[in-house]
Specification:
binds adenosine-5'-triphosphate, alpha+beta, 4 domains, globular, binds magnesium ion, two-stranded antiparallel sheet, Beta Polymerase, domain 2, Hypothetical protein af1432, 7-stranded mixed beta sheet, Hydrophobic Seed Protein
Amino acid sequence: MINISYRAKTALEILGDHGFEAFVVGGAVRDRLMGDIPGDYDITTNATPDKTVELFSRYKVIETGLRHGTVTVIIDGQPLEITTYRTESAYSDTRHPDSVQFTNSLQEDCARRDFTINAICYNPQLGIRDYYNGENDIKNKVIRCVGDPVQRFEEDALRILRAVRFASVLGFEIEDKTKEAVFSCAHLLKNISAERIYTELQKLLCGKNVKKVLLEYTQVLDVFMPQIMPAKGFDQKNYHHIYDVLEHTAVAVENIPPVPQLRMAALLHDFGKPATFTQDEKGVGHFYNHGEISWQMACDILKKLKVSAEDYQLITTLVRYHDYPVLPNEKSVRRALNKFGEETLRMLLLLKRADNRGQNIADFDRKEEYDALEKVIDDVIRQRQCFSLKHLAVNGTDLIDMGVPPSPQTGYILNALLEMVINDDIPNHKEILLEKAGEIIKNI
Ligand code: ATP
Ligand code: MG
């Protein structure tokens, strides 16, 4: 007996009551068998899409996937995907199946699914249907293609990255023949759209086994992110570091919270190191300016992956400034808050912490320093200290009242005042600020 959501049960019942066969399939069954809570439920059924639309007419139905046999039904405000049993023909462009055919056979529907662990079906009345021994593979923690792996990857190369994603998220091993095909077919990922790749990459990075996977499957990421390869095995020749650049990167990734943007920033933060490497007369390695080079590389990578404008902005900022010095004192923190804003500064601190975990922490553990820094950030925020123009006790209107017409000068004066307040040269008091403004105006 597997627990399934009320919404999935409702859908299975409606289909069953009208004489159709329907099962929960894919991630939800897999997650339940592993004792995890499923994210979303997918239903597979022998009802045709038209029939499904008809049966769910009292619900809101979205028909966007109809051509591929998918009907999205909104039950209790949440979407549920119901897909008709289908087979797929050849993928001549390794992107889209040339056509899909509906079938009455559940086993045929399972045959087109990517991995055995994703091809287990469950219906409370009918029990489990597991044509490809997925349960056994779950027990043994193995990712194995349904059918011949090379053929399956040639049909849809995204499955290569999905295999690696599931290895990372579930902590499973990829079975030998499937693994061999992962490497021999990796180049086919070139044909896959950036959007599909980025979706899988984000999940891969948030997996619990991400470190191992990054080191073992670097060659797969190399296909769409060639900037990763020089990091592999790159000896840093520096006593701060006990790992090569890629291992250091992987440790940093696993030590930052599993939020896609943070993990992505950790992945990219040191890609510029190999290109900036120098050795001094003692043979010690240095990477001057590597933040800037990593930043440029991150910009290229993220553009190619077509990430959203917000993700691009955030991730590239984190990469660029990962070594930006912020000291555990109020002045330094106010400066940093002014430059980055609270949210980004806190993320930057998470990246700094993770970066340090990937260094020689026996000698250079900075945890206490970063704890102290975090405390100062908390204090400055809680005390509502002034670090941006919107906190300043004077504004443009006050300057107009003093006779300064709205002009670029207004901004110049306000920023000069803010700078003095941030530096603790003057308090954030209106009268004092206005007096200072008068002096500045005189000197312009
Ligand atoms: P998640 O927990 O991320 O939702 P999932 O296994 O449900 O994992 P989905 O991307 O939601 O993954 O896909 C649902 C199901 O559809 C999969 O379990 C699998 O059976 C099938 N599937 C998805 N993508 C592919 C693909 N590219 N090739 C073959 N089958 C696929
Ligand atoms: Mg799913």
